[in-house]
Amino acid sequence: MIRTRPRLAALAGALAAASTLAACGSDSGGAGGDAGPPQPGGTLRYGLSQAPTCSDPAQASSNQTLYVTRQIVDSLTDQDPRTGELKPWLARSWEAGPDAKAFTFHLADGVTFSDGAPLTADSVRKNFDSIVQLGAAKAPLANGFLVNYAGTTVVDRLTARVEFSKPNAQFLQATASTQLGIQGDATTAKPAEQRCDGSNVGSGPFVYTGYQQNISTTLTKRPGYAWGSDVFGHKGEAYLDRIEFTVVPESGVRTGSLTSGQLDAVSDALPQDLPLLEAAGARLLTTPNPGIPFGFQPNLTRGPLRDAAVRQALLPAIDRRQLVDTVLGPQFKPATSTLASTTPGYQDLSARLAYDPAKARTLLDQAGWAPGADGIRVKNGERLSFGVVFSQVFAGNKAIIELVQQQLRQVGVDLRLDLVSLPESTARQNAKDYDAYYYNTTRADGDILRNSFTVEGRNLNVRERIPALDEVLENQLSAADTAARLALIRTAQERILDHGLWIPTVELSQAIGAAGTVHDLKFEASARLQFFDAWLSGR
Questions:
Q1: pLDDT reported for residue 188
Q2: Where residue 395 falls among pLDDT bands split at 50, 70, 90?
Q3: C-alpha distances in Å from residue 247, one per residue of 53, 267, 385
Q4: pLDDT-based confidence at 213, cuts 50/70/90?
């Protein structure tokens, strides 16, 4: 029985009453009709579009990294991707205090880590303590989930009470995340860098048996695994014997490897790949990502983006529908707010983001930015030119930004592209070394806005405090009920646009190419892959 205090009862449902999360992939079964009952065994060969940045779930941020790290750890809870409801996993039940400052978890008995050590309440304490010690630079998402963490009390061997100095209403949903997945003492005792070398010890259905940074990762089934999430489709061990992840950055090479039978599934299958996939008997699995859509986050201390009028002019200067239709295809959507449309608390602000280049020009004219000889606007001798730092964390990023570059030039704005590696991109973000930074962040909870936009947090806009925004982002953590919290999240989205702190472009969707022999490869609630139920036919 999952017990919660009345005032926070809806928290255990992870905002399910307010918004139903996106369904799982459009096709999670096999091709060519009924393939029969699942067949255990076999090796699934998966092509990643980018190398995992770290083997540590707590430090993971990119989707390609999370596809790997999700498989080696279990979380305290799991989130149903269809309803948003929280379900038991390592915690078989829990209670939330009435003020959202204390959460008590009752752990499953008999769970062990891959090194044989038992899961205890002290394991939970050491995990959360270690994440706080990693800090926001190393573990930005995990650290943000533990905002105002006061400590974990070991009530007894299988009961842990997690406490915060201030209300933290988002924490229950965060316990379903990969970043708060529970690892063994052998891992949590290590410094940050050593937690990235593939030696991580988790209690999940797979274990690391090979890790070569930037090249490949091999996971092997954990024998005796018997404590899966209530969201999983079956009990017991995973079906697959092994998963071999190979880094294949070029989209065409990934598609060719899949259609020729060298790979079984691949990331970031683009629309132009679909005819080739279908001709080879493969198909496309898709699901939209909740969280913050792709967009530009301006540094308010650098260049023309210091001017609020410039930031406001950028909003109608971008034709988001053209970005989707030209670069991405029907599996994707234009961004219509500072949250993706599948996120609980989403507010439709499409009217404010409507394409209107005449409006953009008028705003710039009124702000004193006049067209120069080459068409790029100038004010007091300064060109309306700024750079954007980005990586190919998503295969379509470069093409999207190049098209935005063309669109902005139509209104007299010069956008300079600064494509860097993912590690350099992260370093530049942490150092605030950018005019604008292009990215997205996936999470099935509107609190992700606080993680990216609050001045007390990472402050990626490099700005001064804006009480009308910061107080809303803080207050949603202590909202008495779900409806009140969602109302605050909706308000925050509007105020982020009011101040031009985010220039949205497109909503991310996961698009996975899968051979007809791959069955039940599923997306979890945050649109990352879950391989536990996957199996192979015809081997």
A1: 98
A2: confident
A3: 12, 10, 35
A4: confident
Cβ contact 110:117 at 8 Å: no
Tens of pLDDT, residue by residue over 131-167, are 999 998 899 999 999 999 999 999 999 999 999 999 9
DSSP 392-461: -SSTTHHHHHHHHHHHHHTTT-EEEEEE--HHHHHHHHHHT--SEEEEEEE-SSTTHHHHHH-TTTT-TT
Rounded CA-CA distance 142/136 in Å is 8
pLDDT at 285: 94
- What would the two tokens of residue 334 be? 């234009």
Q: Which of 97, 201, 73, 200 is nearest to 150 (CA)?
A: 97
Average pLDDT over residues 233-259: 96
Q: What is the identity of the amino acid at 60? A: A
Rg (CA), the chain: 23
Q: Minimum mean pLDDT among 67-76, 120-129, 323-332, 366-375: which range?
A: 323-332
Cα 171 to Cα 4: distance, rounded to the nearest angstrom: 14
Q: Is 200 exposed, middle or buried (0-12, 13-18, 19+ CB in 10 A)?
A: buried
Could you give the angle at the alpha carbon of 148 between the alpha carbons of 147 and 150, nearest 5°? 125
**CA 284 to chain CA centroid, nearest Å:** 20
- What is the residue type of 238? A
Q: Write down the pLDDT at residue 2.
A: 40
Rounded Cα–Cα distance for residues 504 and 269 (Å): 22
Q: What is the DSSP letter of 307?
A: S
Per-position DSSP letters for 317-362, written without gaps between them: H--HHHHIIIII-TT-EE--SSS-TTSTT----TTTT---HHHHHH
Beta carbons within 8 Å of 248's beta carbon, 6+ residues apart: 47, 48, 49, 254, 257, 263, 266
CA distance 23 to 81: 6
477: closest CA among 83, 101, 44? 101
* 324 or 9: which leads in pLDDT: 324
Whether residue 402 contacts residue 373, with contact meaning beta carbons closer than 8 Å, is answered with no
The predicted structure's pLDDT at residue 34: 61
3-class state of residue 171 by DSSP: helix
Tokens standing for 113?
């880590």
- The mean pLDDT value for 273-283 works out to 91
Facing residues of 60 across strands? Answer: none
Q: How far is CA 399 from the centre of its chain?
A: 21
Cα of 492 vs its chain's centroid, Å: 19
Provide the residue type at 55 as one letter. S
Burial class (CB in 10 A: 0-12, 13-18, 19+), 456: exposed
The DSSP H or E segment spanning 382 is strand 382-383
- Write down the pTM of the prediction: 0.87
Provide the pairing of β-strand 385-390 with 436-442: parallel
What percentage of the chain reaches a pLDDT higher than 90?
85
